[in-house]
Automatic annotation (TrEMBL):
Zn(2+) 2 binds at residue 277. SUPFAM superfamilies: GAF domain-like, HD-domain/PDEase-like. Residues 695-704 have a biased composition (Basic residues). Zn(2+) 1 binds at residues 276-277, 387. Binds 2 divalent metal cations per subunit. Site 1 may preferentially bind zinc ions, while site 2 has a preference for magnesium and/or manganese ions. PANTHER family: CYCLIC NUCLEOTIDE PHOSPHODIESTERASE. Gene3D superfamilies: 3'5'-cyclic nucleotide phosphodiesterase, catalytic domain, 3.30.450.40. Its EC number is 3.1.4.-. This is Phosphodiesterase. Residues 254-483 form the PDEase domain. Residues 634-661 form a coiled coil. InterPro entries: GAF (IPR003018), GAF-like_dom_sf (IPR029016), HD/PDEase_dom (IPR003607), PDEase (IPR023088), PDEase_catalytic_dom (IPR002073), PDEase_catalytic_dom_sf (IPR036971), PDEase_CS (IPR023174). It comes from Didymodactylos carnosus.
Amino acid sequence: LLVTLARNLFREQSDLEHLIRKITVESQGLLQCTRCCVYILESPASKPEEVRFSKGFDMIYEQEFKVTTNDFLDNSRYAKIAYHVATSMETVNLSDIGNDATFTNLLTAQGDDNFILKNILCIPIFDKDGKVIGVAQMMNKINGRVFTDEDVAIIEAFSIFCGLGINNTQMYENVMRLTCKQKVAFEVLSYHVTASDEDLSRITSVQLPDANQLRLYSWDFNDMILTDDETVLASVRMFAELDLMKKLQIPHDTGGMNVCMNDLERLGLLVACLSHDLDHRGTNNAFQAKVDAPLAKLYSTSTLEHHHFDQCIMIVNSEGNNIFQSLSADDYKTVIKYIESAILSTDLALYFRKRGDFQKLVENNEEHWTDPMKKELLRGMMMTACDVAAICKPWEIQQVVAKLVASEFFQQGDIERSQLHVEPIPMMDRAKKDELPKMQVGFIDSICLPLYKTLTDVDPSLSPLYDGCKKNRANWEKLAQEHEKLKRHKNVVIYLRDLEVIENLTKMLEQTNKPPIPPVNNLNETKRNETKLKNINETINQNSNSISYKIVNDTTTLAKTTNTAVVPTTTTTTATMASIENTEQHIKILPAIATPTNCLLLLKEVPMGDSSTTVDSTTQMANIHLIQVNKQHIDIIQTQINDLRHDVDDLRAHVQKIEQQKSASTVVLPPSTIPTIGAVASTIPESTSHQTSFNHHHHHHHSRSSVCVLF
């Protein structure tokens, strides 16, 4: 009996209402009851709060089957019992409604409900995952009988088939709904990809320009200067050129790959080139995977490339667009295969995977390219060469295209940082936009030059691509070098500015020349601080007498040497620092100032921009003129200066504290040091003084070459 019922159910899976009608009829016949109701949930529920009825169906014996109203679902006593069963997921069998006190409040008739309810059997309907998707109710057993345990067992078994039937029908309806949405979307897309009658009339009324007029056979061809109509006409001319090579006697040095391809391959490659980026999203494949985009779910590899191919086929299949309609079925399949393979080849991940095989063939002097697999490899390399061909264009075109591409990359990087909360790769980091020339050089070296070099080996007539790529690399390399020089110049300016800050701070500290009077009960601590101060000053003097500087030939690197004459610390010492000019020769300062004394000496006594000052041989060692040094040293001093700023804040706060003291005592310092710095240091507690004075040096390779030792 159940198999027969199940067979009847599975014949009705195209419409949910028809299926429920079948369930109610079969249930009434199976259990011999006078009324049957079925309730469908909005979505499968596993928790009470997820239970919400979307539809209800009601059938009374010898009456019409009907869909219930929303009021029935919300307020009827039958729906209340069904809701209880759905939330508890348990069967309810009430044999005598009048004498059952458990559900008295739920079973009270309301409004115009005049149905006399005597007994009721209510069961949940589950899907394959064990979630409730509906509830079935049978009421008033015929001939005054009640629902038995045998009835419960039968209807529960029947409900399994009901659940499968309902689930399948809902899935079918969802598929049909999505299909309808897809058709609507296709109609919208077809409208936008189909030329209007007005556009068609305008284009066809214009004489097709000559290929030479459009410069289609020039490596300098620039599509950015064409209007929309001119772009269409140029595309049409490209198709027209496929069969007119011989008639027009096109010079062979415009590229000799034409002889390697048959008509279907040439047609497929041209369509692929025009279609390879259709409906591009402005992001790459990795981004589609990161955001779990629908496209990434459709295609796990070459996500966007598959989508571009789909858009191409969609356009071809639109009314009036099928340019392959005259081809045979076999030729049609072949050219579509060529198009798909060519578009997928524009995925650089595939290029890197196949590049080695292609290079081996070229190194082995492959000449004929007749083998299908080898020919497919050649077509793929040609597609990649076309895809990045802007790198071979004249410099003016290359710059514009590179900035457009970079702008697109930076937009993706902005989204990754703001929405995905991840740091973008340097190529997509807007903060590194000034490094575009350097990144372009890397792109050319890793992808473009090897590709065009290999293609030139296949056909020497392609050498203009290789030559153009090399010229643009040289231009980008020049810009990258200029950027590095400007960056070094900026670091020098920042460095000198920070030295000026140190000088101003020193002058400020010199004005505070009296340390506070120590408490009476802390005189011993004061004596220890004075002794410590004396030791610090002696150490400073020793270092001042052990380090000097020299300028090393053409690199003019400021180097430390020992056992040489000391840099004079008298006020008669003079030195010269050349003005920093905006030329190819940028000045770089080595942060190798060994002591506070020498630091202030170089800063105070070397006039900026005074190139006319003369110096004798004794002070020549202190003359800083066009000093250049590597970037690593500048980075070190920048780090130290940043740390120094924090120390300055601490010292400034400490000075303010000193000024608030009511009285002060005088500490005499050696004349070769900076008095107030030592005086201030002597007032700092031992643990604090150690931390603020030396915590910047543990990660540097010279402990006393840092400006931070000043404090």
